[in-house]
Amino acid sequence: MGHPLLDLKNKAAVVIGGTSGIGLALTRGLAQAGADVVPTGRRAEQVLSAADEVVALGRRSLVQTCDCH
Question: What is the pTM assigned to this prediction?
């Protein structure tokens, strides 16, 4: 799993807006590179879905909704 030039094992990432579009692509990519990822967003259903994708990739996640102004 992951990319040979990007090894993020033992790292954690928080992706603001990480539940759709480019943010979701970043969430997936970071998890594929080995990072534990916390995708955040305003919609609880989308946050849960993105966190489930991270876990399905074998990484840890945390379900946390937020609204950044």
Answer: 0.89
